[in-house]
Amino acid sequence: MHDGSDLKDNGTEGVVIRKRRKGIYVLPNLFTLAALFGGFYAIVMAMNDRYDLAAVGIFCAMVLDSLDGRVARMTNTQSAFGEQMDSLSDMVSFGAAPALIAYEWALRGLGRWGWFAAFVYCACAALRLARFNVNTTVVDKRYFQGLPSPAAAALVAGFIWLMTESGVKGTETLWGISIPWLTFALALYAGLTMVTNVPFYSFKDVSMKKSVPFAVIVLIALGIAVINIDPPTVMFGVFVVYGLSGYVVYAVRRARGVRTSVISTSTDEPEERGLHM
Description:
By secondary structure, this protein is mainly alpha-helical. It is 61% helix and 6% strand.
């Protein structure tokens, strides 16, 4: 016999409405927590001077972060809690972790300039994530407004991974270029590009449910094989190209006289004056 504790009389005799129990969807949040662990693991590895493993932790967090939203949409388990959890996880894995790894690896030797670059990157990541959350309903889904934080983290972590695998330390000079100052420039570039209005392709219009030609699967297999040849070099190269692609799109749009902003016209908050370019 049911005790009726989760039933409610709606005023009509013999008709009851079952209350929907509040809870947290487990599956998508497991991916989010795993991504958060990737960022935490990266920080711990950096503290133990294992910068190669720290970079791997960041890239693993990227993969998991790309899956949690897709899993939530595929299983119809989206929630406000999941969105907030995802943002907090991103701040750790793609904001604080890359900044701390870069500081421990190379920026520490620059003194105040070192922590300046690390803080600017971290602060820009926070601003990027906050702007993304409030602009979700007014931004063209095909593009990101500014460099997405996972890609920015991949630029910084990928460079450190590549240098570490090549036997170059963060205190050395390579081809006459100071590694600490090169890291400084890269951290500032990645950080400041996150808060620009430059459009970066989001790949959100790529549907995983549609059938594709057999050649596409072959190309994916070839891509995986190329990555396995030299993961640090290939991954860093890919994100360098992506990190520059937004400025190419911006320049092409300007040259064609097309509006470069990805903000749609809206009278809702946030205030959009000054966002259009």
